[in-house]
Amino acid sequence: LEERAKELGRPLIQIYDQAAMAQLLYRDARWLKELLGLTGDPPALSIFPVTNRPLFDVPPQGRDEDLAKIAGTTKDVVLVGQPGSGKTHLLFTAAKKAKGRFVVDEDLARVADGVRSLQPRFLIVDDAHSRLDFVRRLKLSRQQTAADYQIVASCWPGQEDAVINALQIPKESCHLLEGLPQKQIKEVIQSQKILGPPHLVWEIILQSQGKPGLTVTL
Q: What are phi and psi of 39, to 5 degrees?
């Protein structure tokens, strides 16, 4: 697409990659019906999160240790990070890498059906600080059905104690997502095909404040 746009001398405004198309199909009943001939509600467990932020199917920059921690978890864990720090993108990558799924429907019967069908290693509750009652019910459901999966819950700083209490896990089970240095933020910008002018790149670096998710949005 980039080469064709260059040949035509036209600007390329946006590329919708595989992740973006799958997200659109998953949530849009009309597209499902017209393009795939499918009707009905989408599954309660999804490889894709419910998010308004851009979601790119590329590995997160500078997050190898964080990714290994989440993808290899053998117990419940709380991922803590500022808005825009890249929590959802990290969890999306971990889900693909290690058979995780986002819980996108809080109907526990449908969640249990999805667990029996997919046998995920872990379930992700994004923005768990705003879904504390569901976190408690999900933990109880896991006990009642003797299911074998871990719960990975994300939240903002200052909200982790409430999520820890809902999961009944120790403070050591928290994992803080730190900000990235400016060099890695520059790599994030370049991964979005923004290579200049230099003052624009520098302005994005300054405004992002070490947050790769915010960097992509900017």
A: -130, 165
Residue 23: closest CA among 1, 2, 40, 42: 42
DSSP type of residue 60 = P
Give CA–CA dist 202/188, Å, rounded: 12
CA angle centred on 142, ends 73 and 128, rounded to 5°: 65
- Check: pTM over 0.90? Answer yes or no: no
Degrees, nearest 5: CA angle 93-123-102: 60
3-state secondary structure 170-201: CHHHEEECCCCCHHHHHHHHHHCCCCCCHHHH
DSSP assignment letter at 83: T
| pLDDT tens figures, 137-166 | 999 999 999 999 999 999 999 999 999 999
The reply to whether omega before 11 is within 30° of 0 (cis) is no
Q: Token pair for residue 83?
A: 């808005």
- Please list, in sequence order, all residues whose beta carbon lies within 8 angstroms of the beta carbon of residue 162, skipping any fewer than 6 positions away: 129, 132, 155
